[in-house]
Specification:
three-stranded antiparallel beta sheet, single chain, 489 residues, 14 strands, seven-stranded mixed beta sheet, alpha+beta
Length: 489
């Protein structure tokens, strides 16, 4: 390599500059081998390299699945048969791109095909045509293809259907001042330059009188990927900081919970459908859990028998489940702080995993993260709760809609939603309200308790720009490395 570097330096010096093709032909070496010599001389500061951008693309595995037809094309073809209700369209990617392309119109929850959409079925889809061209064309044609269709290529890359490699190709080489000096003495110094000191050189002092290779701090280097938190963990930490900064204290509770704390203490009747196997994971080991406070058990029994006018069974209350919400943590702490008598309200929140036997789609998984909170005190009203939740979501960048709603353990109740423009759908974020007096009485407190339970996973649609919750668990290392940070410092 040192000999090739010397010969290349002499060739550039004698010709006043050179292109890689000219130098490779004159020196009779392969282009790849010559490139190593070019890189070495550039690192030494001996030559100046002029580069031009050369773009190429690789079609991803997902992109190959789209060669025949894109999801939005499939949706367009379906709508050609007639309008479809938006909530029946489960492919958020197809819905988002069809709307962005102007192929569909959404009105009153109904998606219909536009004239532009009908026309596109006859003229072809440029995005798919570019994908096919990149897959079939040789790499040396990619640069022209990508430059001529820049917007389409960037859209394909954003959708992770292709990856674009932006490399620099050497167009020409010329000597630097250092190179001119080296060209005059390269032969005499060949083999005597020191590139790296080692222990033996330092001990023997053999480095004295020798020339050292230059060190180029601007030389290209490999990309380094530092350790990072998973985006879900990063986002949970951001939510935690917001609540702490708002003066709340964090509390915790068990994931394996009794039906007593998960359902009964929250006034959910024992024959309610949400307790059935299709919604709740019941455990076989342990199969039951004990309830230590006999008086509490008696008050909850009375609450059910008087409120629901039905039979209440202790055996059902003792059943062990994977908690279906972190509201069980709130119930435990209403009980724990039943005698709270401070001048300022007690503000608590919890963050944790909950489990539900859901049908999997783009906004539902069998396990999810939930944030619950309570405010315990005197003279509290629904206005305090509205202010708290608006403040929290505003710090996450959401404009929310608040409307009356029903939840078994609050009265009155409110639902917090935001409109997802990409999917044309209202996404539920939070259920909230004033804890029913029957519950607070059974849990032993005379205070007013404001409460909410918020799903956190769906907030990442907006934060990360993902199209499905399953994207969070794809283990796509490239995406995990390149994604934007969710932390606010």
């Amino acid at each position: 390599m040192e000999d090739l570097k010397r010969r290349l330096l002499e060739y550039i010096s004698s010709h006043g500059g050179a292109s890689p093709e000219e130098a490779a032909a004159a020196l009779r070496v392969e282009r790849g081998e010559l490139q190593k010599a070019i890189d070495g001389l550039e690192r030494d500061g001996a030559i100046r390299v002029d580069r031009v951008r050369m773009l190429s693309a690789s079609v991803t595995e997902e992109g190959r699945r789209y060669i025949g037809r894109f999801p939005e094309e499939a949706l367009r073809d379906e709508l050609a048969k007639g309008p479809v209700k938006v909530h029946e369209i489960h492919d958020g990617i197809a819905l988002g791109w069809a709307k962005k392309n102007g192929w569909i119109a959404i009105d009153g929850g109904l998606a219909t095909l536009t004239s532009k959409g009908a026309e596109s079925a006859k003229t072809g889809y440029p995005m798919r045509e570019l994908l096919v061209a990149l897959l079939s064309a040789p790499k040396n044609r990619h640069n022209e293809l990508i430059r001529n269709t820049r917007d389409l290529a960037e859209a394909l890359e954003k959708r992770k259907l292709i990856t674009i490699d932006d490399a620099g190709a050497v167009a020409g080489m010329s000597l630097t001042k250092e190179g001119e000096v080296l060209a005059g003495r390269r032969t005499a110094r060949a083999g005597t330059e020191i590139g790296q000191l080692n222990k033996e050189m330092l001990l023997s002092k053999s480095w004295k009188g020798k020339a050292f290779k230059g060190y180029d701090v601007n030389a290209p280097s490999d990309t380094v990927y530092p350790a990072r938190l998973h985006p879900m963990r990063e986002f949970l930490e951001r939510v935690r900081r917001i609540w702490l900064n708002m003066g709340f204290a964090e509390v915790e509770g068990p994931i394996i919970e009794s039906s007593f704390w998960n359902f009964d203490a929250l006034f959910s009747p024992q024959d309610h459908p949400t307790r059935e196997m299709q919604d709740t994971f019941f455990l076989s080991s342990p199969k039951t859990l004990s309830i230590d406070d006999v008086e509490l058990m008696a008050r909850v029994r009375s609450m059910h028998e008087e409120g629901w006018k039905g039979r209440w069974e202790e055996a059902i209350a003792r059943q062990a489940v994977l908690r279906t919400h972190t509201t069980s943590v709130s119930a435990r702490h209403i009980y724990k702080y039943a005698n709270y008598d401070g001048d300022d309200p007690l503000r608590l929140f919890s963050i944790g995993k909950v489990f539900r036997n859901e049908s999997i789609d783009y906004k539902h998984l069998a396990e999810l993260h939930q944030n619950d909170g309570i405010i315990i005190g005197r003279k509290l009203s629904l206005a305090n709760l509205v202010h708290t939740l608006r403040e929290f979501y505003s710090q996450l960048g959401f404009e929310v809609r608040i409307k009356p709603s029903y939840f078994p353990f609050v009265e009155p109740g409110m639902e917090i939603t935001y409109f997802d423009e990409k999917r044309g759908d209202w996404i539920e974020l939070c259920g909230s309200g004033v804890i029913r007096r029957e519950i607070t009485k059974a849990l032993g407190t005379k205070n007013t308790v404001l409460a909410w339970g918020a799903g956190l996973d769906r907030l990442l649609f907006n934060e990360l720009g993902i199209s499905s919750l399953t994207d969070l668990y794809r283990n796509d290392v490239d995406w995990l490395r390149a994604r934007k940070s969710l932390m606010v410092h």
